[in-house]
Prior knowledge:
With 347 residues, this protein is an alpha/beta fold. The chain is 34% helix and 20% strand.
Amino acid sequence: xxxxxxxxxxxxxxxxxxxxxxxxxxxxxxxxxxxxxxxxxxxxxxxxxxxxxxxxxxxxxxxxxxxxxxxxxxxxxxxxxxxxxxxxxxxxxxxxxxxxxxxxxxxxxxxxxxxxxxxxxxxxxxxxxxxxxxxxxxxxxxxxxxxxxxxxxxxxxxxxxxxxxxxxxxxxxxxxxxxxxxxxxxxxxxxxxxxxxxxxxxxxxxxxxxxxxxxxxxxxxxxxxxxxxxxxxxxxxxxxxxxxxxxxxxxxxxxxxxxxxxxxxxxxxxxxxxxxxxxxxxxxxxxxxxxxxxxxxxxxxxxxxxxxxxxxxxxxxxxxxxxxxxxxxxxxxxxxxxxxxxxxxxx
Length: 347
Ligand code: SF4
């Protein structure tokens, strides 16, 4: 099935040509769709055309629930998709503007030990229009005037493994960076992967130099394979070789994500090994104290421990920043909110 939200301008032109409409209507319709408008709200589209468009599947994304953090400037959304599925997104306000963290799949099949998104495996991939729809719905909910764009940065770090949904993610990136779309620079987009090595090599050939973030979380293969099972297929040396190639090709500094887990990977020897592993790679480490996962007996490191870990890395001349673990009061970790909704509603 073809959804209007998934169509780019040439596809809309073809659709409208078949309806005997002039090609300029395609840009008008596209622009409304990107702003999260319903067909009936497309005020410069003739009524009879709106009636025809209303007969087609839209593929819209609606805000089902919103949770405002009392501690941070973050709003977490539970989005409802047209087939009744739910996904999560988070809008964060910073000094320079808004950053949106998007889900890329419903569920996930990567099986990371600390992650709620993967508990029931992969349900389905999200389509480009459903990623754009998350942005449109959140922007619409936050802007003060009809044409205001509020978003400056995008991070693909919500539920799902973006590189496991490769074609749809590339289509999304092309549209969101296009001047006909949001026109967001690839430099302001970050893509986080657990390390699907062949797809990293493919991504670097796409002329879409987004910032590559690697969910590393361990400095040796034994521990990483426990935490991130895909490591058995693509162990750390393979992942880091791909990261080096990506950096060389795109000129972009990479981000290494390291979730700090109490007594598992947060000691001084762990910091020294991590620094040694990443030596000579143009990267920055984001240290994120893990949200507790009682089911797996994993406890996040304290903030104090995280700061100590950063200082041990600094002593090794390795750049790192302690990031806040995203609002635990709004079920910030990826997949928690959808999972809770499914639990409460017998999903
Ligand atoms: S951390 Fe990311 S890749 Fe791993 S299971 Fe969760 S959503 Fe999937």
